[in-house]
Amino acid sequence: MWPLKFPMLKTSIEIVLEKLEAQEPVPRMTHPYGKHWDQPDRSEILIDETHALMTRKTFNELKEYSATNPTGAYEGKMWKRHDGSFDQQFLARGGRPVWMLCWYGRCDDPGMVSNNYRKIILVDGLLPTLKAEVAA
Fold this sequence. Notes:
Helix content is about 25%, strand content about 20%.
């Protein structure tokens, strides 16, 4: 009888980790297919409501999908998009494409993912300092 096993009960640490994870804009990539998708660590990118700050090295590690979305949609998968680069009317009006960080995120509907994006700002040489200030 002892010790009793309660597989559905979560430890305090598991609950805290889940709450911290829920605050991250880009969720961890836990799907098995994620083993076959190379991307930079999400800790290398600072994300707010409109922008994603990253170094040139991190930018270069993202796969580019400017005309489509990558297949295999699962939480945490990130890529970059040169938004507007394939829109001929936009370009003809003088539009300038911008680089966007895109990712598949959490969704309330089970089995679905959300599409998320932020404008990329390159901050070579500055990001480690920003991370230290954010962490403090």
